[in-house]
Amino acid sequence: MAKQDYKTLELPAKYTPKKSEPYMCPEQKAYFYQILMAQKQDLTQGNNNVLNAVRNSDAVENTGVGDDSDNASQEQALTMNLRMSERDSNLLKKINAALERLENNTFGYSVISNEEIGISRMLARPLATMTVEEQEEYEARR
């Protein structure tokens, strides 16, 4: 029997991973793959919107239209867009890292201990890389 590919596996419409299933079975991997790819697509589309806003800002600035108040508002909006873009870029890196962990079968396992992170935690935070206990210890040390 051929191994199922989580990237092309079609899941039932209301599928949610269950604790009763084998941990990170093809269905669970497909579920998280679809979530991560949707987030990645949203972020990529959002980055395109930010780039367009920056281009429009440059065009308005070059035309010399608007008073000092308009220009200050425009600059503030540009700064906010750039900060959001940086945040999205960092999130995109985390999503790509999670997709890579899916590919090499380490998704859902702690990067510290290789223990199962747990389906409940992965459902709450698909980008998790540590168990709850490891995360709490990490944050306490910071």
Your description of this structure?
The chain is an all-alpha fold. It has 2 domains: 23-107, Up-down Bundle (Four Helix Bundle (Hemerythrin (Met), subunit A)), CATH 1.20.120.910; 108-142, no CATH class. It is 63% helix and 0% strand. It has 4 helices and no strands. It has helices at 26-63, 68-103, 119-124, 132-141. Helix 1 (26-63) packs antiparallel against helix 2. The longest helix is centred in the N-terminal third of the chain and has 38 residues, at 26-63.
List keywords for this structure.
mainly alpha; 2 domains; 142 residues
List the helices and strands and how they pair.
Layout: H1 26-63, H2 68-103, H3 119-124, H4 132-141
Helix pairs in contact: 1-2
| Topology order in helix (H) and strand (E) letters | HHHH
Number of domains: 2
Strand content: under 5%
Number of helices: 4
> Based on DSSP secondary structure assignment, what is the total number of beta strands?
0
Task: From the 3D structure, determine the CATH topology of the largest domain.
Answer: Four Helix Bundle (Hemerythrin (Met), subunit A)
Report Rg: 21 Å
**CATH architecture designation of the largest domain:** Up-down Bundle
CATH class of the largest domain: Mainly Alpha
